[in-house]
Design goal:
Number of helices: 6
CATH topology: Pnp Oxidase, Chain A
Strand order of the largest sheet: 1-2-3-6-5-4
CATH superfamily: Electron Transport, Fmn-binding Protein, Chain A
Mean pLDDT: 96
Number of domains: 1
Bound molecules: flavin mononucleotide
Structural class: alpha+beta
Low-confidence stretches: none
Distance between the termini: 31 Å
Strand content: 25-35%
Amino acid sequence: MDTLRNYINSIRRDFANRPLDESSVPADPYYLFERWFDEAVGAQVLDPYAMIIATAGLDGQPTSRVVYMRDISKSGLVFYTNFESNKGKNLIENPKASALFFWGDLDRQIRVEGRVVKADDELSDAYFSKRPRESQIGAWASAQSSVLLSRAELEQKVEQLTREFEGKDIPRPPFWGGFLLMPDSFEFWQGRPSRLHDRILFTKAGEAWQTSRLSP
Ligand SMILES: Cc1cc2nc3c(=O)[nH]c(=O)nc-3n(C[C@H](O)[C@H](O)[C@H](O)COP(=O)(O)O)c2cc1C
C-alpha cells in the first residue's frame, strides 16, 4: 500500500486550457452533450458511451457501476440491464439516478440527474433482437447480482439454454430491458489550469433550461 499511497500523494497534473464559456454554450444541454460526445469520439476516448450510474434504494446507501448508454433522445438516456439486479431493485424502490461520463483525455465530465422509468417494451425488444445470440443467451443465463456457487454453474446454465433455444429466435427475458433516465439537470465540467475549472449547470424549468455557472 505504501507505493500506492506515495504515488497518489505525489502525483499532480494540471489541466489543458480549453475553456467552457457562456458564449459557446447552447440553450439546450442535449446540443452541448452531442458536441462533447463527438469530440470524445474524435479524441478516441475508450468507450465514450460508458457512464457511471449511481442509485440508492430505500436504505439510502448509494451504489455506482458502469453501464453503456445505448440510446439518447430528447426523452433521455437509455441503458439496458437486468431489472432484478441490485440497480434494478434500487431503481424500483427509488426511481432516481445520477449518471456520470468521465472523458479524462479531454479533462471533462458530464453529470446527468433525473427520474428513471422502464423504457418502452418495443424499444427494449428492438435492442434485444439486435444483440449477438451469445449476449441474448447471456441475458437469460445471468440472474445478475445474485450469488453463484461457481463459474461452472453459470457456464452450465449457458449450455443448457443454448440447447433449449437451438433453431429458435430468442425472446427478450421479461426481467431484462432498458431504463430511461429523464434528465432534469446536466452539469458540464471542463478542467482548467490551477484548479479554476469551468462548471456549467443546466436545470430544467418547464420545457426550457436555465443555466448557471458553479464554483469549481
Ligand atoms: C465497461 C463496462 C460496461 C458495462 N455495461 C453494462 C451494461 O450496459 N449493463 C449492465 O447491466 N451492466 C453493465 N456492466 C456491468 C455493471 O458495471 C455491473 O457490474 C452490473 O450491472 C451489476 O451491477 P449491480 O449489481 O449494481 O446491479 C458494465 C461494466 C463495465 C465495466
